[in-house]
Write a structure and sequence with these properties.
Elements: E1 5-6, H1 12-15, E2 16-17, E3 35-37, E4 43-46, H2 52-65, E5 68-70, E6 82-90, H3 92-106, E7 111-112, E8 115-120, E9 123-129, E10 134-140, E11 144-146, E12 149-158, E13 181-182, E14 185-188, E15 194-198, E16 205-209, E17 216-219, E18 222-224, E19 227-236
Parallel strand pairs: 1-10, 2-6
Antiparallel strand pairs: 3-4, 4-16, 5-6, 6-9, 6-10, 7-8, 8-19, 9-19, 10-17, 11-12, 12-16, 12-19, 13-18, 14-15, 14-17
Length: 237
C-alpha cells in the first residue's frame, strides 16, 4: 500500500492569513487537566482542554476570517484524498498562549530522541469539515524549524462535537452546536489493523506522534453537523 503524506505547510501560500492576535479569545490556564494514553501507543487525549466558550469563540473568529477549500490531486498523484476547508495563521503569541494554558505541564516529561517538548509550532491551522467532507488515510510529516527545533507530535483540538443542543437559546440555528455524526479520527497499525477511533468532542485535545513513527490515520466522512478543528504541532529541542 502506498502511504500518502500530508506535508507541513501544504498550500501555505494559497490560504495563509495574517494573524489577528487581538481578536483571538483569551485562553484561561487549566489546573485540573488529565492526559490519557490510548492503546499503549503514542496517542493521547486531554478532555476539556478548551472550555465550551473558548471553543465557540475560536469558531466565531475563524469564520470571520474566512475558510479556503483544501483539496488534493488524489492518490494517483501521490496525495491523500482531501476535502475540507482551511485557514492557516502564523501567530507565535497564540501558540504560546495555548501551550502555556496547560500543555506545558502535561507534556513536561514527554521526550523523544533525547529532546524535550518546549512549545507549539506558531503555524496554526483551522479545519472545517461540513457534511460529506473527509480527509483520507495519510501520515503527518515532521518539520525542522531550525536552531535544533523539530516537531514530533501533531496536536488537534476539536472545537465542535459531542452531543449538544442543535439551537441556541434564541432559537436561531447554530451549525457549530449541532451533534456531529461521523468525522472520527481513526488510526491504523500494521496490516491496516484498527488501533483507535476518536470521535470529535468539543474542547478535547488529541496528540499523536508524527514523522517516521506516525500511524496511518484518516478523518472520516462527516455525515451530520460541522466539525471544526484547531491544528498545531508540538516542538521539541
Amino acid at each position: 500500500m502506498k502511504v500518502m503524506k500530508r506535508k507541513m505547510g501544504e498550500r501555505k501560500k494559497k490560504d495563509s492569513k495574517k494573524s489577528r492576535t487581538s481578536e483571538w479569545p483569551l485562553i484561561k490556564p487549566k489546573s485540573n487537566l488529565e492526559i490519557t494514553r490510548l492503546k499503549d501507543n503514542d496517542l493521547f487525549t486531554v478532555n476539556g482542554f478548551f472550555s465550551s466558550g473558548e471553543s465557540k469563540a475560536f469558531i466565531k473568529v475563524a469564520e470571520s476570517i474566512g475558510f479556503v477549500h483544501q483539496g488534493s490531486l488524489g492518490p494517483t498523484r501521490g496525495e491523500a484524498y482531501r476535502d475540507n476547508d482551511r485557514i492557516s495563521v502564523q501567530d507565535p503569541v497564540l501558540a504560546d498562549a495555548i501551550w502555556s494554558s496547560g500543555l506545558n505541564k502535561l507534556l513536561s516529561d514527554l521526550k523523544i530522541r533525547g529532546k524535550t517538548a518546549i512549545g507549539l509550532n506558531p503555524n496554526l491551522r483551522f479545519y472545517r469539515y461540513k457534511a460529506g467532507q473527509r480527509f483520507g488515510r495519510h501520515i503527518d510529516e515532521s518539520i525542522d524549524l531550525g536552531d535544533g527545533k523539530r516537531t514530533h507530535y501533531t496536536l488537534l483540538i476539536y472545537l465542535s462535537g459531542g452531543s449538544r443542543s442543535k439551537t441556541r437559546n434564541d432559537n436561531t440555528q447554530d451549525s457549530a452546536s449541532e451533534t456531529i455524526v461521523g468525522g472520527e479520527t481513526v488510526f491504523y497499525g500494521p496490516r491496516n489493523a484498527l488501533v483507535a477511533e476518536v470521535p470529535p468532542t468539543e474542547g478535547m485535545a488529541l496528540l499523536h506522534v508524527h514523522g517516521d513513527r506516525c500511524m496511518l490515520h484518516e478523518a472520516r466522512n462527516v455525515h451530520t453537523g460541522v466539525k471544526y478543528v484547531l491544528r498545531s504541532d508540538v516542538v521539541f529541542a
